[in-house]
TrEMBL record:
Residues binding FMN, per UniProt: S10, S15, F16, S17, M107, Y108, N109, F110
Superkingdom in the source lineage: Bacteria
Function statement: Quinone reductase that provides resistance to thiol-specific stress caused by electrophilic quinones.
Protein's UniProt name: FMN dependent NADH:quinone oxidoreductase
Entry note: cofactor: Binds 1 FMN per subunit.
Species, as recorded: Pseudonocardia kunmingensis
Flavodoxin-like fold domain mapped to chain residues: 4-183
Amino acid sequence: MPGLLHLDASARSTSFSRRLGARFADGWRAAHPGAPYVHRDLAADPVPFVDEAWTELCDELMRRRITDPRRYPEVVQTPAQRAAWAVVAPLLDELLAADVVLVATPMYNFTVPAALKAWIDQVTFPRMSLAGTRFVVVCARGGTYLPGTPRAAVEHAAEFLRDFLDGHFGVTDVELVTPELTNALVDPVLAGRRAEHEASVVDAEAAVDRLVAACSPAAV
């Protein structure tokens, strides 16, 4: 039975990324009653940054050419490494058990929040593959960074996630949903673009619904 891992990274308790992420998760769960579902709120319950013991685990995995996550515990030796592995193990188990990973995040200062980057670092190991896992990324952005816009070149959140997942994990099934211009609701400079923002949200909701339908049992 397919499983869903749902990550939230927004520092806001209510946000566009959380709202659209919940829309996907609710639709997916309705289409897969009883299927495994894990929700991890990385802002409310942040994972720690990696430490030196974590880097030692990575070094030893490379030395021994271990690429199978089931064998990772073999390299854990010292008390510090055991403490580092105690952080990693539940996060990695959730990731490896998921058929679909939903990442709901804002873009902060042109990139992903530190809380999401901390999770990524904790679960990323040398030559580790997640090929075959489907990723849905909902990334809300205060301005507009669509291809062809003046700031497209500094979009390092949604595109970073797609490039990273493909470049490191070999994941080719990454769907991006990017509601734009959310700051039009609060920034007077962008107030005249509120209609663009609202249209972007409508498009994002429709994209989420299409992705839910594509993940339904009838579609796979």
